[in-house]
Design goal:
By secondary structure, this protein is α/β, with parallel strands linked by helices. The protein folds into 3 domains: about 35 residues, no CATH class; about 220 residues, TIM Barrel (Alpha-Beta Barrel), CATH 3.20.20; about 100 residues, no CATH class. Helices cover about 50% and strands about 10% of the residues. It has a 7-stranded mixed sheet. α3 packs parallel to α4 and α16 packs across α18. The protein is globular, with a radius of gyration of 22 Å.
């Protein structure tokens, strides 16, 4: 196929999987022939990238992210999608072609009853927390995990439908249909609030010639301000979401204890899938995160084994006083995580315009912790590969028998992650690693392969 590189890269964002697969194959061929310049492998990582299976502000699919990692020389890449595992199998297929180390996760909101009177990381919503699972190996869950994953989908559909009912009522003359106008915007039919915003923007453009006047009234802004926003689509979309859907907006839904799954239910989905329950840190400003020692102790008791951080929003801040507070909170969280034997996962999300493509690990605020971030990435990768190859990941009976403590498992899977090179035969599952080996023998085998 003799297509321009830019067109092939854009095809990686197509909703048709065959088109994405074909585009990646041609890009990799072109790279192999020296037709595309790629950076040598470096110590950059992004372990928290949303894909278009939930929402990626830049339109990236799993294949597109794998290609991005290949072009930029990232040492590791991780995807995390809201309420779906739809992108996991594509991620691993693409990564095996591109020789990229990858991990896969899921994110949702849960209810933590012990913190019912304290905000955690979901502003204005006491007891509610954004929460994650890392280290999944397939899109296809089984057993009770199937029902729990389906429950996440149903809960998201209910929330989205209520938001649309409320906004349809608020907009009066602009009506959208969830099934017809919003669901098709997600290739896995798992749309988010951001897809709802896109549907309304399109509906307004199609239904009225007075677009500026409409949004000025509904957003309660001046016409001049709306003119500026409309010419800056990312900012415009964020403005609509914050004004109309978030707390205080006409589409906002104040959650109850029944709105989101109990944290134990979500943990069971993760553990049943052999993956890793993970606490998602915001910035340490809420009452719940100020009580971080109590919160992490509680969560560890419920199965949490890792921590996720979005570093950029914790240090890259223009207000010097706020920056000082958030950086101090970040440093405390990192040191506390180390003391509690909780590996750290970091990334930029990419689910909002303005999110960085990759963190600036040379920034003075992050540089001292870069090695810890790399350890966390290799930890999840090591778990992922051994679970795929021999079903001896972190949650396995094998690990519980040979490596009973978190510290032991952390060290083992981090070492494994550093040993498994994507172009090594072990990546293709041809190694002699199996459940009959001890941890020491596994490491020896990996060093030999």
């Amino acid at each position: 196929m003799n297509q321009p590189i830019e067109l092939l890269e854009e095809s990686l964002k197509n909703f048709t999987s065959e088109i994405r697969r074909d585009a990646l194959d041609h890009l990799l061929q072109a790279s192999k022939k020296g037709m595309i310049q790629t950076l040598p492998e470096n110590d950059d990582i992004n372990m928290h990238c949303h894909t278009f299976f939930s929402y990626n502000a830049y339109g990236h699919s799993p294949s597109s992210l794998v290609w991005l990692a290949r072009k930029m020389g990232w040492r590791l890449l991780g995807i995390v999608d809201f309420d779906t595992l739809a992108g996991v199998d594509e991620l691993f297929e693409a990564a095996s072609k591109a020789n990229i180390r990858v991990t896969a996760g899921i994110e949702t909101r849960v209810y933590i009853p012990q913190f019912s009177n304290r905000e955690i990381n979901s502003p204005g919503e006491p007891g509610v927390a954004y929460h994650m699972g890392l280290g999944f190996t397939t899109s296809k869950v089984s057993g009770q995990a199937t029902d729990r994953l389906e429950d996440l989908h149903k809960r998201a559909d209910i929330r989205n439908s209520i938001i649309i009912d409320r906004l349809n009522n608020y907009f009066e003359d602009i009506i959208i249909d969830y099934t017809k106008d919003v669901v098709p915007l997600s290739p896995s039919q798992t749309p988010t609030e951001r897809h709802i915003i896109l549907a309304y923007i399109s509906a307004v453009e199609n239904c009225t010639h007075k677009v500026n006047e409409f949004w000025a009234k509904k957003l309660q802004l001046s016409s001049d301000k709306v003119d500026i926003l409309i010419n800056d689509p990312p900012t415009f979309q964020n403005q609509i979401r914050s004004t109309l859907i978030k707390r205080g907006g006409p589409g906002y839904i104040q959650p109850t204890q029944e709105t989101f799954p109990d944290i134990k239910e979500f943990h069971q989905l993760i553990i049943d899938s052999g993956a890793l329950p993970t606490f998602a840190w915001l910035d340490g400003l809420s009452k719940g995160e100020q009580d971080i020692e109590e919160l992490l102790t509680l969560l560890i008791g419920d199965g949490v084994v890792a921590v996720n951080i979005i570093p950029d929003r914790n240090w890259n801040i223009s207000d010097p006083d706020l920056k000082k507070i958030k950086v101090n909170n970040l440093c405390h969280l990192i040191e506390l995580s180390k003391s509690l034997d909780l590996p750290i996962n970091v990334g930029t999300e990419m689910n909002s315009f303005g999110n960085k493509i990759v963190d600036d690990f040379l920034a003075p605020e992050l540089k001292p912790y870069h090695s810890s971030f790399l350890d966390g990435a290799f930890f999840t990768y090591g778990h992922t590969r051994l679970q795929q190859i021999a079903e001896i990941g972190y949650q396995s009976s094998w690990a519980k028998s040979y490596l009973p403590s978190r510290k032991q498992r952390n060290g083992f899977y981090t070492t494994v992650g550093r040993l498994i090179n994507p172009i090594n035969p072990i990546f293709q599952g041809s190694s002699q690693v199996n459940q009959n080996l001890t941890p020491e023998q596994v490491i020896a085998e990996l060093k030999r392969t």
